[in-house]
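Re: Re: token formats

Sure, here are both.
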Amino acid sequence: MTDRSAVSAPGRAPARAWPLTSLLTACMAFSMIQLFLLGALGPLLVDELDVSPVVLGLTTTIGFGTAAVLSPLGGRIVDHVGSRRSLMVLLLAAGGALALIGSAPGPGLLLCAVALGGIPQALANPATNTAVLAVVPAERRGAVLGTKQSGVQLGAFAAGLPLAALAGGLGWRSAFWAAAVGALLLAWGTWRALPPERPRRAAAGVRAGYAFRGMVARLAVFSLLLGAAIASVNTYLTLYGVRALSMGATEAGVLVAVLGVAGVVGRVGWARVARPGRAEWLPGLLALGAVGAVAMLIASRDVPPLVWVGAAGIGLLAVSANAVTMVLVVQRSLPGRAGHDSALVAAGFFAGFALGPPVFGLLMQAERYGAAWLLVACELAAAGVVAVAWAHRDRRAAAR
């Protein structure tokens, strides 16, 4: 199979791989760091702002619901204006959302700020994937994509360790303000580092519109189920550690850091081996494997140290599956469609992130911890079955 997306974007100057990879990784980190901070610092916000666990779950629902709605439009905008301008909007919106959360006097402004944070989430995958297609040779894209996708988990690590430690010393608001300053500094660096570009035109014969077709539709459904499971873990793992396992707030916040580090390792590693013919099977197998990690979280009620094993397993397997889906999109997107296709798959993922936490939060509030984690296991199992079934059908169709 020829690589249909190997065409470089006209007008884009070549860039060295590692500086570009580092920049895109940081942009991915800032696209979602506000939600990781809300998860890591959830116990502090629940106490100071007088919000319930259900309202805490609504922060994820609103943020990712906004991202899911905006993603199709965001993908088309990226294809039209290019990755450089799109990344600037991403970082400025992320900085504004972080600053507003740090200033929120109560749940109202908090939820509005989280909605603003849906903009960088909607732009992140289309903008960064388009940049990779434009300047990275086809044979190196898997490694670069895996590394830049790991930026999301680097954001989780930053939220769960250094920023959580800063919150422990100076208060939770200082952590959000520090992250906001970092986003603005990265925006300045991005504008200076990336050369101007001329957007690519869509390939001839490709019909415009938001219709879900072929592999994009399959990955969107898979991503919806996967996102529902991952979002519940991201949002409530810290609170579970505090309430169910009697951990301190800072120690429980480190669970998010463990999840983040494992996600970085998994995303980089699995994306490197996601070559055509193999990549189609990986998302389903990773999701099914993650069911075992959830079993560790269930067992942690009786054996608390297993919570660390479960957190690492979710990062290595479930979180990494999302990176492989983006590798598949880049491998198969037609020239000029990478932003749009990436956005449609991301919309499914974000929709799952919006739908998962509210139900989990209700079970958490009722202290039905086993049932809550069983829900996550069922979501992962369903995602795995869907992906494996479609991969099997693709193999049979190719053999005819």
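Second one below.
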Amino acid sequence: MLERQEIEVFLALAEELHFGRTAERLRCTPGRVSQIVKNMERRIGSPLFVRSSRRVTLSPLGEQLRADVLPAHRQIEQAYRRAVAAGRGITGTLRVGYTTPWAADAVLRAGEAFSARHPDCAVEIREIQFADPHGPLRSGEVDLQISELPVREPDLTAGPVLFAEPRALLVPAGHALARQASVSVEDLALAPLITFAAEYPAYWLEYHLPTHTPGGRPIIRGPAVRYWPEVLTQVAAGQGVAPVAARAEEFHSRPGIVFVPFRDAPTIDYGLLWPTHQATAAVRAFTAILCETVAESAPDAGRRSRTAVTTRAK
């Protein structure tokens, strides 16, 4: 009878075909891996692996054992994960909101990993509109969402920052600012600022759509919009300008508008939000997986943002 540790070592070595990598994967020593395999081979009475100074391969018997053991091992692991998920309440449907396309991309990738680990819990995603930024969370339509920070609401908890995006100013193609390599926060006084027709907290509005520049110059208020496509339309029509994430140019570039990078504005930070009293096991598990997903792709995302700004500045 094979013990669990023996099965795990055998299957890992059969996949890695390298004692060092197998030991690293299983967090033990190469000597321990070798000892377990030798004990298995001694009891079975024949080699499971063919070893040479340069490579490790499965013997015919090893191939047969792997084919017999692997499906059963996967089935046991899946049953164990289902039991853990049920015990922790990670079942049913988890509804996740987002406000930007790059956040949606991250949620989709995290959703795939989450579903693999918790197959009894489905993930549904939906876009959150400017018109009602926190309403879906408060009504229970979504369980958590990625939104622009800051958020300081007593009934909502703000989790970790997932994206810290450099800012750009979205300006009409014919505006004088469109011909500049970069803009300053002080330049917000030079054109009407597109605003939002929604009940955002005063602290949030002042951070994203200030009434005065740092130097004290008043910022004219432009048309108020309810949905993101209206921002693009109003700017293209020459009705105002809008501070946005520089990465938005990758997804929303169109005739009549220009993205000009800021040289002195703070980043737009995007973080997870969830109802303070509903931090379920599923929410916590998805948050951890989403953070892992974003961290793994962070170098590429940073390179894309820098490239977009550099290209615009040339």
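Residues 92-163+270-313 form a domain with the D-Maltodextrin-Binding Protein; domain 2 fold (CATH 3.40.190.10). The longest strand covers residues 156-165.
- S.
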